[in-house]
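quick q for whoever's on today - can somebody do inverse folding on this one?? i tried earlier but teh output was garbage lol. tokens:
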């Protein structure tokens, strides 16, 4: 992966094109790469996404081990642990790009999800804004 935001973003787009086209390369997964990562990590992207099992960032962006620092929560809820992880990625790991990954049909956000959430835990989601 690259060491500047534009190159990191380009690598994500190219990886996603490989995934969508059915031609993933599965980079950075060799025995040598795993040995290198035992000495530390140098991810080029900090990605915040949903913990939905259908949205595995390393796979849909065709990235390898150590290429991305990923934080996932159900419905992309931001709390102090998420903020601390983002700060760590930027301040300690020096990632040049922060990406936020949303997806369709999120069961954790929306009216349908409220049916299985006990009343005492329900929150007002009217302030959530969608971009697309």
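ok took a stab at it. sequence:
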């Amino acid at each position: 992966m690259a060491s500047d935001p534009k190159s990191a973003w380009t690598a994500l787009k190219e990886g996603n094109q490989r995934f969508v086209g059915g031609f993933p390369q599965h980079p950075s997964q060799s025995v040598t790469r795993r040995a290198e990562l035992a000495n530390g990590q140098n991810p080029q992207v900090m990605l915040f996404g949903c913990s939905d099992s259908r949205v595995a960032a390393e796979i849909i962006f065709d990235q390898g081990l150590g290429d991305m620092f990923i934080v996932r929560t159900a419905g992309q809820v931001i709390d102090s642990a998420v903020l601390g992880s983002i700060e760590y990625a930027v301040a300690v790991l020096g990632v040049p790009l922060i990406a936020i990954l949303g997806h369709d049909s999120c069961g954790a956000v929306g009216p349908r999800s409220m049916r299985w959430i006990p009343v005492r835990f329900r929150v007002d989601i009217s302030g959530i804004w969608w971009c697309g």
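fwiw The radius of gyration is 17 Å. also The chain is about 30% helix and 15% strand. so keep that in mind when u check it
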